[in-house]
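Morning!

As promised:
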Amino acid sequence: MRREGASVDWSREKFTMDEDLSRAVREVFVSLYEEGLIYRGNRIVNWCPNDQTVLSDLEVQKDPQPGKLYYLRYPAKNGQGGVTVATTRPETMLGDTAVAVNPNDQRYRNLIGATLLLPLTGREIPVVADEFVDPQFGTGAVKVTPAHDPNDYEIGLRHSLTQVVVIDPHAKMTEAAGSDFAGLDRYKARQKVVAEFEELGLLEKVDDYEFSISKCERCKTVIEPLISLQWFCRMDKLRDLALDLMVKEKRPQFVPEVPYEKVYTNWLENLRDWTISRQLWWGHQIPAWYTKDGKVVVACSYEEACAKAGTDELTQDQDVLDTWFSSALWPFSTLGWPEETEDLKTFYPTSVLVTARDIIFLWVSRMVMMGMKFMGQRPFDEVFVTGTILDKEGQRMSKTKMNGVDPLEVFDNYGVDATRIMLASVGSTDIRWNEKQVESYRNFANKIWNAARFCLMNSEGAAVDPESLRVGVQEQALHDRWILSRLNKTTADMHEALSGYQFHEAVQTLYHFFWNDFCDWYIELTKTEVTAEEATTRRTEARTRLLTVLEQALRLLHPFMPYITEELWQRLPGANAKLLNKSYAGASPTIMLTAYPLSATELIDEEAEWQMQAVIDLMSRVRNIRSEMNIKPGERVPILISAPDEKLRRVFSASVDQISRLARASDVSISDRLNAPRASARAVLSGGAEVAIPLEGLIDFEQERQRLRKEQDKFQAEASKLEAQLGNANFVERAPEETSQAIVARNTRARGRFVAGEKMIVAGLEAAEEVFISLDSQPQLEAFVADGEEIEAGKVIARMVGFADVLLAGEHVALNLLQRLSAVATLTNQFVHAVEGTGAAIVDSLDTTPGMRMLERYAVLLGGGRCSHLGLDDGVLITSNHLAIAGGVADAVRNAKQKLGHLHKIKVQISSEIDLQEAISNGADILLLEGLPAEEVARLGAVARNLSSVVSVECSGNITLQNVRAYAEAGANTISISALTNSARAMKVTFQIQPF
RNA sequence: GCCCGCUUGGCUCAGUGGUAGAGCACUCGCUUCACACGCGAGGGGUCAGUGGUUCGAAUCCACUAGCGGGCACCA
């Protein structure tokens, strides 16, 4: 834990065997005993013959394994017939004291009360009737061994059967098993019993049978159920305390709630008494003493016991308590209970317990029960259940499987920081261990280091200064306002994620901020200022800002990556005592004692964020064109930008230096209209802006064609070679499967590339060259896709997009055209998305509920008008399978009818009689009456029927019997029921009813 | 048998009604002076299947299949 950098108060380290905690244990034991919640008794328990101790139900592990089911015949005493029983453990028959059958089982009805002769022993045993017996299983008759089987034990109690102990604590047969068997190991005895039954002709058959066998969780020895004198803790009352807490206060709150809350309560509901004594050498010795005559005295100490017993001739119970008994007291015993200490008052109840799911029963539930019992309050508010790290195959790690991962080794290989942040990112889901993930966080650590190195290399004359960020914010450059906004938004997101235990979210947020926002963009954007030769005020300010942002980022990262953040923080100029959390004023400076950053919401600047994003998008598109066009990285190209919006032009203008540096431009020109030469690559940006790179002189079509030809030759050569190899029968026959598959794959790839290249050359370049020239001429392009009328828009898009892929230009022209083709086509998301870029000028004013965005796009595209006209609140939504059109009802219906009448029925949602009249007179097909009172529905329905017999009426809303009647009277032929309020689950049904 | 969870690109996983994401892997290009544990660009997913609800479903509901977990039983 220390190496891992756990930030705990080591001065409070505790061990349950410490004297103070042991005292709490005795105190609790005595108290529960006096209340009757702890008792000592002879019960059947889980006994480990190897460890020589009793175990609780939770310490027993059930393993399914193949075994045999033996059918043994027990003759009747009167010699007439008998009963066959089935058993997996024949040796226990020596301790049988009855055979049980189900009272309703016709087959055995006459046998109930009969006496059987137990073979090998000569014992006479009765046949008893017990509901427990399942007539379907085995023969329907069960041998009953009360001393060696938990269920038989219960049956035995119900029928007052004798308990014959035939197996001892070492799993050897006892004298009671008969002199032939005494001293034999249980498995030897099994063989012998089976052999003798066979000899006597009483072994009916032996079936293969798989069943679960109970083993000792620790040593894997098969458990022997034995009757034994042990200490038990009654759980019913304690359990109710925990269940009540959940019902009344919903505590503890499990995170994640599903499935753990239910797992926890289900377990509590089925809880049985807890065996708390153990026959181990180590643990809290049970505070019970015995007098010479066997009287029991329970007390906190020997002295007290003597006083109670009135004698000092006492011997203490040799057994110890289950370790989980003392663990259950942990939340308060560590705080000094039973003393009423300051710690106890201050820290109890605690806030959160972080734990693994397999100790919810062992520990969490018991802490809750004991906390409620002795403190009267929950021990903690929340329980965060971590995920489990599985091995590569998805198996749980275990010592026996040797598939565990040694954390120290991972620390050595990748560093503690990388390991920690990787594990934190897992949150509460199970995850397969994957070193690659740790490696990626190691790379992240390296990135942090290098970024900080850059900052430190350029820090002369500057120092961390949080106050500086707030001064003159409005006068700062765009990228500065942007990074401050990003930083504070990230900070706010961190608080949100952490308070909800969304660790994965938190880690992703930090990773993205640091790597993408801070390193990829901010450092690059501010580099010129920061690395300036001359020591100007501007340089100092830039350096200060850079250091300050870095410092806050380090503090955000610190809980996840303590070592690297401390190391770097110590080196930052200005990272000193001033930054410490006030509570630690005067301490020596360390990032550990600084305050976790709070978000300065006034620095969150949406305006700066979208502006910066526009510039970033611009640079990305330019880089994309450069890359696709194979423009050399070093080559500078002229960039032409157009933006109809003046504000956007100003944003670009202000960033010209950045753009030319980061997009490698020789010249940047910005205007309101794009005036690019013919052979230009273009891209569409948001806000109706466009960017173009003239390719004249940069790309030589003839040369490009030759380059591609050369590449083609290479692919073809490779393919031929591979094909020759595959054609060689010897190779195919003798080569290992893996190799031949690899060759096939390589060939496929080479061939694929060849084909793609061919296509590119033929369909692309040659057409490109031609179309490039005609690109600006819309009529020509239109002619090019003249058959578009007959094909679906989706296909046109595919074609155009493919086209654009080759050309990287003309996209906007193509899409303009598509807008006009849209009326004949089925609209697709892809289409809308594609158009959004070019139609941005129109869509731009979108500001409506997210649920309607898609509809509105369609509406806009189909000429329904600007989005601002479209409002659900106006009650003029018109729907027609995925279509909404803005405007007044009359206009809208006409519009819809005209555009889509032949494709769809026009459904109009109405809320007034005027709407209704307009809708009907303009040809609406369906009226939707939604969310209106029943009387209103009936009234409007009647009006509608008077006006037109063709129009159908659809109703939805709050469905009650009365409403349905009103809807029917309104002439509704469809009633949509969208919610049934009184049902636990919302059911969604649509009724078709006959019109009156 | 009962209850619960999971199924998203080659891999490991995010994403609880509005244009499918990350890391790794892959392809192309780059000795750009913080970082090749790097930089830039790119390809790749009918979100297990079927049906339903919705203007719209990876997301809500039902069923099916596969995987996993818990509980009970196992004579």
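Residues 34 and 85 of chain A are 45 Å apart (CA to CA).

Hope this helps with the figure draft.
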